[in-house]
Automatic annotation (TrEMBL):
Keywords assigned by UniProt, alphabetized: Autoinducer synthesis, Iron, Lyase, Metal-binding, Quorum sensing
GO BP of this protein: quorum sensing
Cofactor requirements of the protein: Fe cation
Known function: Involved in the synthesis of autoinducer 2 (AI-2) which is secreted by bacteria and is used to communicate both the cell density and the metabolic potential of the environment. The regulation of gene expression in response to changes in cell density is called quorum sensing. Catalyzes the transformation of S-ribosylhomocysteine (RHC) to homocysteine (HC) and 4,5-dihydroxy-2,3-pentadione (DPD).
SUPFAM superfamilies the UniProt entry points to: LuxS/MPP-like metallohydrolase
Reaction catalysed by this enzyme: S-(5-deoxy-D-ribos-5-yl)-L-homocysteine = (S)-4,5-dihydroxypentane-2,3-dione + L-homocysteine
Protein name: S-ribosylhomocysteine lyase
Pfam families: LuxS
Protein family per UniProt: Belongs to the LuxS family.
Catalytic activity, EC: 4.4.1.21
Chain positions recorded as Fe cation binding sites: H53, H57, C124
InterPro entries found in the cross-reference section: LuxS_sf, Metalloenz_LuxS/M16, S-ribosylhomocysteinase
Length: 159
């Protein structure tokens, strides 16, 4: 069986960044999948499920309500390895194209206070598994260490 594209990336060299994971032709258009890598795989601890879950709720809420990208957002959710998130957007994009959007989204997550959207038993299958404080912290870390001064090597997968 052939390896899927995400398993061909050298995770030993991979650092936090914003990467185009793949582009697919769907119904006559392009869907771009982004790898929003927040932690260094196999080098630093993965994110716990509570903060991943909180970032997922806040990020999805932000994206679906965004005036420009709301209608282009196909999916936002966590990687199984808990080192980042996938974002699927309708359209043909490069990594640099979404840095302003990701900066805006992670500032929203960093600054968010109050009840997490959808964190109720009626709205979510695991509503108690949330950690807003850690989600705020991780969003700030990603902004400070990656997004605010993103370098070219954090926009293109390592060779």
């Amino acid at each position: 069986m052939e390896k899927i594209a995400s398993f061909t990336i050298d995770h030993i060299k991979l650092q936090p960044g914003v990467y185009v994971s793949r582009k697919d032709q769907v119904a006559g258009g392009v869907v771009t999948t982004f790898d929003l890598r927040m932690t260094s795989p196999n080098e630093e601890p993965v994110m716990n499920t509570a903060e991943v879950h909180t970032i997922e709720h806040l990020g999805a809420t932000f994206l679906r309500n965004h005036p420009e990208f709301g209608s282009k957002t196909v999916y936002f959710g966590p990687m199984g390895c808990r080192t980042g998130f996938y974002l699927l957007l309708a359209g043909d994009y490069e990594s640099r194209d979404i840095v302003p959007l990701m900066t805006e989204m992670f500032e929203f997550i960093r600054d968010y206070r109050g009840e997490v959207p959808g964190a109720s038993p009626k709205d979510c299958g695991n509503y108690l598994d949330m950690n807003l404080g850690m989600a705020n912290y991780l969003a700030k870390k990603y902004l400070d260490q990656v997004l605010y001064d993103i370098k070219e090597d954090r926009l293109v997968y390592p060779e």
